[in-house]
Write a structure and sequence with these properties.
Blueprint: H1 2-17, E1 27-43, E2 48-64, E3 69-82, E4 85-105, E5 108-121, E6 129-142, E7 147-162, E8 165-180
Antiparallel strand pairs: 1-2, 1-8, 2-3, 3-4, 4-5, 5-6, 6-7, 7-8
Length: 181
């Protein structure tokens, strides 16, 4: 498994080294992302670690106002597992607005984005999210004039209804996606 991950990282980095500078233009812009988040908690009754995992994909579409500012909206599908057991899962659909800024430091193209949204509850939904905020930063690798690869990491904050108490839970998040315009 480690060899496969190293090979993928090597291939992506090689492609990105020889890629062009991103050419971000005014107009329509769309994204398709694979994402993952994890919530780590300690259960006090038997001192056992609990891991809630949210993995899925999302699509975002909107308007690029200039080379730095994008505003759009999106939706996705998240598969939620409890301690990575496939038998204990739920499926939720996040619905969000998204803002994004792109900039270049030297020759390194970077981005920062912010998603604000809620979840539409569906199958076996024991995830009591009311609201989520997901800021992230990452690397933007152009594969030509129309398609780019985005790799990012962030900290997702979820406002949960936890046993009739509203609490904020923070989860590390990662995403990899394709951008097109």
């Amino acid at each position: 498994m480690k060899k496969i991950i190293v090979l993928i990282v090597f291939i992506v980095s090689t492609i990105c080294v020889y890629s062009q500078e991103p050419q971000i233009k005014k107009g329509y812009r769309g994204f398709v992302d694979l994402n993952s988040e994890a919530l780590f908690e300690k259960k006090h009754s038997n001192d056992r670690d609990i891991v809630y995992s949210l993995s899925g994909f999302s699509t975002t579409h909107g308007y690029q106002f200039n080379e730095h500012l994008f505003i759009g909206g999106g939706l996705g599908i998240d598969f939620i597992t409890y301690n990575f057991q496939s038998a204990s899962f739920a499926i939720d659909f996040p619905l969000f607005v998204s803002g994004r800024t792109d900039w270049t430091i030297g020759k390194v193209p970077l981005f920062a984005d912010l998603r604000l949204g809620t979840f539409v509850k569906t199958i076996r939904s024991y995830n009591n999210d009311k609201l989520f905020i997901n800021p992230s930063i990452g690397y933007h690798c152009s594969w030509g004039r129309k398609v780019s690869l985005n790799i990012g990491a962030g900290l997702s904050m979820h406002w949960l209804n936890d046993y009739n108490n509203n609490v904020w839970k923070m989860m590390p998040s990662v995403k990899i996606g394709i951008e097109f315009n």
